[in-house]
Amino acid sequence: MTQFDFFPSRTLTAYLAKLFVVRILAVLVMLVLVLMMLDLLSNSGKILAVPGNGQGELLTYAGLRIPQLIQRFLPYSVLLATLITLVTLNQNSEVIAMKAAGLSAHQVLAPLLLTALVVGGFSFAFNERVVTRATATLKAWDAAEYGPIPAESSVRANVYLAEGSNVLTAAQLTGSGETIRMRNVTWYRRSPDGGIIEQVDARSASYAGPGWLLEDVKRFDVGSASTQEIDSLVVGEELTPDQIDLAKIDPEAVPFWELGPQIDAFEAAGRRTGEMRAKWWHKLSGPLSSFLMPLLGAVAAFGLARSGQLFVRALIGMALGFAYFVVDNAALAMGNFGGYPPFLAAWAPFLLFALIGETVLIRTEE
């Protein structure tokens, strides 16, 4: 074994990787089960309140929600598994034995870093193939108030459209082009200074060419405080189907390889795309954050267990890991508001904490 070999022996690499994977899965299952039970306690009443819904719908909700929980908490699971693995190795003097055999701190961590990189690749594929579909379906079901989901494709929820000072909102939108259908529609007619003159609520809306035909309409006039119910009404004659097709992109419900061209279409139409571009980049940097966790938690691996500082080192590793998630969320929020360029908002926390983790490791152990 030489100091120039990045990985230890094949046997030791397999041993450390297996140890790490088992703990990642154990922590992830524990977190997902606990959070899923809390989520069901919070939302089961809404689901069961719909006539005809029962245990099958609760299982459907759980099946759609669990992929989202896995996506969100997999990096946390990698961090906690890193600390558990390294603390255990340290307490059993296995780290001391490896260093006595001539391994550097980087070589001890190499199997964990490789495993975390594989987990990050799995996370990316899982997010884009499974989580995006589950998110789109769950949002459409939530917009339908946990009732039957329309069978049409391209279901979108909570659509907001502007025609001058007037605003059209819809809880659910299906189809595209002239076949667009909207449900639970509200039309706000506003004065030039922004005040609402009239609010129109409708059960559904369809394209009238031009304008949008509202059905089962209830009109409320703000000035006279009077309400009127009519069968139909045409509004928004300047809103075209093409504008509505480009009205909203939900990055959480669109795969990475489809989101890029959609963002380009938005840019060609002169729309603001900074928020969507930051989330597009974050689809890469988010899963890759798992690779950082062994590096940030490495401080828990080294130092003598009997020195009494092992617990403090574990706390430092945990603090570094959670600080990354805080900074990452803050940077993404700044990117959404236009404070940071999209690329910087998505990648700056990753690069910053990679340097911090490497600096701490080198200064303390190498």
UniProtKB/TrEMBL annotation:
Entry keyword annotation includes Isomerase: no
UniProt keywords, alphabetically: Cell membrane, Membrane, Transmembrane, Transmembrane helix
InterPro entries on file: LptG, LptG/LptF_permease
Subcellular location: Cell membrane
Lineage: superkingdom: Bacteria
Spans traversing the lipid bilayer: 20-38, 73-89, 109-126, 284-304, 310-327, 339-362
Keyword Zinc: no
Predominant location: membrane
NCBIfam families named in the record: LptG_lptG (TIGR04408)
UniProt protein name: LPS export ABC transporter permease LptG
Gene name of the encoded protein: lptG
Species of provenance: Qipengyuania xiapuensis
PANTHER family named in the record: LIPOPOLYSACCHARIDE EXPORT SYSTEM PERMEASE PROTEIN LPTG, SLR0882 PROTEIN-RELATED
Membrane topology annotation: Multi-pass membrane protein
Organismal lineage: Bacteria, Pseudomonadati, Pseudomonadota, Alphaproteobacteria, Sphingomonadales
